[in-house]
Design a protein that fits this description.
Strand order of the largest sheet: 1-2-4-5-6-7-8-9
Shape: globular
Largest sheet: 8 strands, parallel, barrel
Structural class: alpha/beta
């Protein structure tokens, strides 16, 4: 059955990546929550998509106490996701203004994921394969996924994901068709698609047998999966 993954929480009905959005996701029937992890100046993992706050300040330049109340620590977020699985996206691309070549955010995320979730309720994802490889070294028990925005050769993508010991691939919606799903499943990889809100497309992806769909409207997907 396809998992309902609430994208940054129930972000169509509440501010994204907030405790409110995570709690609402559970109420709306999400199986999993997807959220974004970055480091603060004092080494605390915080949940925020962009490297900057809306006012332009860089998160990595601020301590947790200097963050707006709307930006939770990862620990607070995981507490709010009680009962659900959590896909923690590690934000650490070389072009990011807060990029850290040592991947310290990965080390911090690993400890929190084990403390609050355990491997069964954790999925670590990143566009940066180096971050995923680092997670494998830090804690091989935590399953990982490779995020994909572009794909020229599905076969090589699947082969690379297998070579790097991924549990899943996370392709952008327009990359996904039934052939990719079959190819990934044949290789032992789950397929979790992002980010889809259109009911017809949600239904088509469920019919293809994808393992999870990241959506801003978890209640809509819940009704489709259950129906």
């Amino acid at each position: 059955m396809t998992n309902v993954i609430a994208h940054r929480g129930a972000s169509d009905a509440a501010p994204e990546n907030t405790v409110e959005a995570f709690r609402l996701a559970a109420e709306l029937g999400a199986d999993w929550v997807e959220l974004d992890a970055r480091l603060s100046a004092d080494g605390v993992v915080v949940v925020h998509h962009d490297a900057h706050l809306p006012d332009g300040r860089l998160l990595v330049d601020l301590t947790l106490d200097e963050m707006p109340d709307s930006v939770p620590s990862l620990a607070e977020a995981l507490e709010a996701c009680d009962g659900m699985g959590v896909n923690i996206e590690v934000k650490n691309l070389p072009d990011d203004p807060d990029y850290d070549a040592d991947h310290a955010v990965v080390d911090a995320v690993a400890g929190l994921a084990q403390a609050y979730l355990g491997p069964e309720r954790t999925l670590i994802s990143s566009f940066n394969m180096d971050s995923v490889d680092r997670m494998h070294r830090v804690d091989p028990s935590l399953p990982c996924a490779w995020l994909l925005f572009q794909m020229t050769d599905p076969t090589s993508v699947v082969e690379r994901a297998v070579a790097h010991e991924m549990a899943a691939i996370h392709p952008f919606d327009n990359l996904v068709d039934a052939a990719l799903v079959r190819r990934a499943h044949d290789a032992g990889l789950a397929v979790n698609v992002w980010t889809v809100d259109d009911p017809d497309r949600l239904a088509a992806l469920v019919e293809m047998g994808v393992d999870g769909i990241c959506t801003n409207v978890p209640d809509v997907l819940r009704a489709i999966v259950d129906g």
